[in-house]
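Anyone opening a protein record will find just a pair of labelled lines. A complete record is shown below as an example.
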Amino acid sequence: MGGAVSAGEDNDELVDNLKEAQYIRTAPVEQAFRAIDRADYYLDEFKENAYKDLAWKHGNIHLSAPCIYSEVMEALDLQPGLSFLNLGSGTGYLSSMVGLILGPFGVNHGVELHSDVIEYAKQKLDFFIRTSDSFDKFDFCEPSFVTGNCLEISPDCSQYDRVYCGAGVQKEHEEYMKSLLKVGGILVMPLEE
């Protein structure tokens, strides 16, 4: 999925294209997308595709298309101080962008099935914190990643203001996903097809 906007030459051009196509509609989402270079979440040998509006997968590592992430972030209506749960947190790209909006008093949790992907996400997060000029311009809610099956989260876990699941959820799991939300929270996920 993806390909809704033309490819950019760099991260800023990709964001410009997402704005022009109205996938990015609010200033906080634009600022988060500009602050984190999508290419930093790619393996070196695949970086030439980083600014295309396409999903990327290599082994267990996966990034959704930028148009998908921008739609998700806009739909989540993120605000400083909220709690966020990313089910299938993958590379940590989305969670890191969300953390730029949540600020220092937010909660930013990611659950990922594959431990190798958790290690990859932690490396990418460390790289962002150590090297990004953007990091110092935001009050960052650092994501915390754990390995696990999102369908096995204890029912007495804390509930969240915002929940995102990128994988298709079967109808029989819809109520379970809703149970992870606080009253008035927002859940974004693909339901079946």
Q: What stands out?
A: The mean pLDDT is 90.
